[in-house]
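Quarterly update from the structural biology core.
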Amino acid sequence: MPSPTPRITALDTYDIRFPTSRSLDGSDAMNPDPDYSAAYLVLRTDAGDGLEGHGFAFTIGRGNDVQVAAIEALRAHVVGRSVAEVCDDPGSLNRALVGDSQLRWLGPEKGVMHMAVGAVVNAVWDLAAKRAGLPLWRLLAEADPAWLVAQVDFRYLSDALTPQEALSLLARAREGRGERAADLIARGYPGYTTSPGWLGYSDEKLARLAREAVAGGFTQIKLKVGADLADDIRRCRAARAAVGPDVRIALDANQRWDVAEAVSWTKALAEFDPYWIEEPTSPDDVLGHAAVRVAVAPVKVATGEHVQNRIVFKQLLQARAIDVLQLDAARVGGVNENLAILLLAAKFGVPVCPHAGGVGLCELVQHLSMFDYVALSGTYEDRVIEYVDHLHEHFLAPTVIRDGRYLAPTAPGFSAQMRGDSIAAYTYPSGGFWAADLPSGARV
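Predicted structure, tokenized:
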């Protein structure tokens, strides 16, 4: 019998890892051997409707067990809560998770605990969208602006963005929402691909995949750089020859450089007409990014996948340190905090091009960008979502790309739910794949 007042009855966690390091998928100058992984959770209820909330934090292998433990540390804040209450107001749970006075000491609002908060909050949004029968982008785009503003924590932001300003931004974008939603459904959202550019790939593979990307409709690709300048020059030359002069090539250093090195290295690659340089230095170095931006113009500066919270994003925008904001669906405190970041970007007029280089990140961030287009920024101009062609087959509602554009999801939820057989196979170390692959007692 369904409960008359349905509650969350379980928060189950899984340490899921994929052996992507063996093919060098995802390799870059800072992370040469990533195993794309998900610290994964499922919220179960006694509602009797069969609906669950799925969420995860993305990691790259070792340490995924630590991330899972952090999610489990939040269980007491979640289990027993009213399903209706948390789905009607996910911000209430977000505030409770961020506000735990003892766990907050481990941040505050940064690192492993904050990513755990994001995973749980995203699972609640997945459940809320499923209960509403809507894909998350549509749930957000059709929501009342005042309700959306109430989901945002403006603490530490009000010197740059007030609730009244946020409400005005959303209210201003209400006109034309229907037409933009129809356009999105008809055409999809523009994407770019990093799949050709992993650092461990040969020049031949890079060039072949770059040509295939352009043939598939992509008008921008991205290359990983930063390990060796001579190699970067050679690879950029091969990529530019493969795609021609009219396709954008973005570069990503993955935090490899000091400020002066970022400037000199980017200038050395300027002959290949890079569109942006991504993560040129530490994600915490706001003033360093600002210095790099001034020095390497007209090459744009982009960052965000490792920016730990809305406050650092605020400072990057206030300091005019970035040209492109790259939010991440699983790095900060979930949908609620990403709403704050999208509103900040809209206030400062900086385009958002989300990071999606990891298992499940394409599935998640598409919803955030599509909401932004329909109900906030109202434009595709200089906006693209990263795409990588890895591991989508493990999701029940995988990302669909057509002619270099993300097709709008139609299935209810946040597109976060993994296939049961994939969970069973890749749970570490006891899942079917790992049990057969690892010697007894071995660890990746």
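Residues 177-418 form a domain with the TIM Barrel fold (CATH 3.20.20.120).
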